[in-house]
Specification:
It is built from 7 helices and no strands. By secondary structure, the chain is an all-alpha fold. It has one domain: Globin-like, CATH 1.10.490.10.
Length: 124
């Protein structure tokens, strides 16, 4: 059996480092930061670690909200494809800075792309 993306990128420590770095970039992005004004970012980071662990095939007991529910208010406040693309770019850049192999970054971004319709509350 082949290893999951979670295992191949380095497991829990790699996922945590990626999420922390990604959110630093997101919160410094004036286009994205307003969506996080009333959010407990530290709680969100921990929830995101669980979600990314799950999405990348790692051991996870993710019990957070569904993507549609979690992003519903943001979509009502204008979250769209442009914002989704910026978050994906910040993930890519964070992974590059952490020296994740390009093929693993591409695999991660492909997984992220599968969540677009749910994040943006679009029809599948």
């Amino acid at each position: 059996m082949s290893k999951s993306l979670y295992e191949r990128i380095g497991g829990d420590s790699a996922v945590r480092a990626t999420v922390i770095k990604m959110y630093e970039k997101i919160l410094d992005d004036e286009t994205l930061a307003p969506f996080f004004d009333s959010i407990d970012v530290e709680r969100l980071r921990m929830s995101q670690v669980g979600f990314v662990t799950y999405a990348f095939g790692g051991p996870s007991a993710y019990t957070g909200k569904s993507l549609r529910v979690a992003h519903r208010d943001s979509v009502r406040n204008g979250l769209d494809d442009t914002h989704f693309d910026r978050v994906a770019l910040h993930l890519k850049t964070a992974m590059e800075e952490l020296q994740v192999a390009p093929d693993l970054i591409a695999e991660a971004l492909a997984i992220v792309e599968t969540t677009r319709a749910d994040v943006l509350n679009q029809s599948p």
